[in-house]
Amino acid sequence: MSDPVSRRQFAKLAGLSAAGVASPLEALEVKPVSPPRSGNGFPAGFLWGTATSSYQVEGAVNEDGRGASIWDKFVRIPGKIEDGTNGDRANEHYQRYKEDVALIKELGCKAYRFSVAWPRVFPDGDGKPNLKGLDFYNRLIDELLKNGIEPWLTLYHWDLPQSLQDRFGGWRSTETCKIFGDYAAYVAKHLTDRVKNVFTLNESGRFVYFGYGIGIDAPGLTLPQAEVNQIRHNSALAHGLAVQAVRAHGRRGTRVGPAENIDACAPAIDTPENVRAAGIALREMNAGYLNVIMTGKYTDAFLKFAGPNAPKYTDAELKIISSPVDFLGLNIYAPQHYVVASDQGAGFMPLPIPKSFPHMNSDWLRVGPETIYWVPKLAAKIWKTDAIYISENGTSSDDVITADGKIYDTDRIMYLRNYLAQLQRATTEGVPVRGYFLWSLMDNFEWVYGLNKRFGLYHVNFDTQVRTPKLSASFYRNVIANNAAGV
């Protein structure tokens, strides 16, 4: 999931813009490589899916040898979780996975993105693997395949083994990166006989800044900016080591790539100069993670802006970080920055977001459907990729249960209809978006919000664990059946 507050303060953005002129963005054309379309909808073969993550749905935190994660500890710090809940039980997906796979099938989804809980497979992060933990994912994968659903596996969705935090400071140490590579190798060796697509780390931009910079997420630290930048570099290194591990230990043909909550930039006005400025902004605002992964170097503007806080690294590390990926996963919810061209600094100026800007049930989730058009379009040009997946998109809603026992979440439908229409616009123009994973299959433990924010297509009564389809489930089923946004 994405951020409950802005990822960066506007003053910092303005500072980056003024940091210095970056190298010009190449004027690259997006090649019309999309396969033939069915009518006016999405390309034939477009992959429709939904998503969850381990800590948010599995529960069973003390069952079958699972070790503690940093979130198990963090949720018990008073005041950290809005409603005082935790993921101990969550959706009981560990026990109810067959029921949940049936929900995915009911939607017509052909793919399901889930994450492996690192401490379920390696209770201490390293050392002896827990075979009972691995067996759960074997059973889940088999159930998905039995129902015609393709498993898309995420290696890390924030539940770092607490042992690694205690021993090495978590992602503050490259030891954790190396151990993550070993964990990735083990998972690849044992699961890629059936899993063909692997995401490495989910949302470095979130778990680094929120977990180690401002203390909102686990492990709840507030470190100096130099350390935060170094941790972000370490997370990129961990990604690269995981890519290499999957290549070395996975079955031939296994594909691998990142899933990042890209710092979303869009032109405030659709003019050539503003579009070009938005491309520069997208590159520079993501220079500390995605750009270095895709290009193997930090931009001059990023290094100049970071100054003495710039990460320390070697050429060998950059080579590992930029190990070639097979696809780019983008988590896109809301516009972070509308930009205009500027003759100052890096060539763009981020604009302040007015207080009156429309948003969904979550204050941070601004409604900017054009974001899901512009970001993939610009990303394909900047990073020369021909395979983009929207690895997360969705919204929370008030989800009021009416007298007839139904949830008429028309606000969620409005959000999805408009975003999917813009995504369809992108694919029609040849932007190489190959699939879409809606967040989320069902309501779950929504991190710092606890159980208060509901992003699911299925309502969950967390007392009885009853799943009830919302009206948006019917909407998404119709989208999938017609391979079109419905507008």
Summary tags:
3-stranded mixed β-sheet, 13 strands, single chain, alpha/beta, TIM Barrel, 17 helices, 13% strand
> What is the CATH topology descriptor?
TIM Barrel
Q: How would a crystallographer describe the biggest sheet?
A: 8 strands, parallel, barrel
- Unreliable stretches: 2-38
Strand arrangement across the biggest beta sheet: 1-2-3-4-5-7-10-11
Annotation, overall tally of beta strands:
13
What's the architecture in CATH terms?
Answer: Alpha-Beta Barrel
Going by CATH, the homologous superfamily would be Glycosidases
What proportion of the residues is helical, as a percent range? 25-40%
Q: Regarding CATH, which class? A: Alpha Beta
The secondary-structure element order is HEHHHEHHEHHEHHEEHHHHEEEHEHEEEH
How many H/I helical runs?
17
Percentage of residues in DSSP E strands: 5-15%
Instruction: Look at the structure and give the mean pLDDT.
Output: 93
What is the structural class? Answer: alpha/beta
Report the principal-axis shape: globular
Give the domain tally.
1
Describe the 3D structure:
With about 475 residues, the chain is of the alpha/beta class. The protein has one domain: Alpha-Beta Barrel (TIM Barrel). It is about 40% helix and about 15% strand. It is built from 17 helices and 13 strands. The strands form 3 sheets. Strands 1-2-3-4-5-7-10-11 form an 8-stranded parallel barrel, surrounded by 4 helices. Helix 9 packs antiparallel against helix 10. The longest helix is centred in the middle third of the chain and has 25 residues. The protein is globular. The N terminus is likely disordered.
